[in-house]
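hi! just following up on the protien thing from before. the input was this:
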Amino acid sequence: MEYLDLRYLEGSSLTLDRPEGSSDMRAIIEGDRCVLGARLRRVFPLSHPDRYFSLQDGEGKEVGIVRSLDELDHASRRVAEQEIDWRYFTPKILKLNSVKQEGGLWTFDVLTSRGPIQFYVRNWRDSSSEIAPGRFLIQSVDGQRFEIEDYSRLDSASQLLIEQLF
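and the predicted 3d structure came back as:
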């Protein structure tokens, strides 16, 4: 078995930007290299979403680990936060207005941290997972992700709607 050496990147030697006219991120590692089509991924997306980020090249090969976005200069941090927000877009469900089963699909009408939305789930057991006690990650039929951070903190009407799915 081959083991890879972890390489931690110092924020002071890393610059992230998007070249004009490109949707891809570029990473410039001072004194080392320029990575075109760079990607940033959370190493521990559930347990430590604000720490440890894998910087990868356009083919998904890891270049190094950034311990915290706080280490980056302001402009690089803004680019990194946009990349993370885009890649891990997961609105928080704040309230359930209705949950109905229609033609083999569950229709959710909810209020999220990004506003009201309606989405569809084919099978609750296959489309949701309890990632921590009372914390649920839900995936809609079109691949969108939604999160209930703490089931017990929802209003009682929302809790009743969720309970009908169990």
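The mean pLDDT is 90.
The chain has two domains: 8-87, 93-163.
cheers
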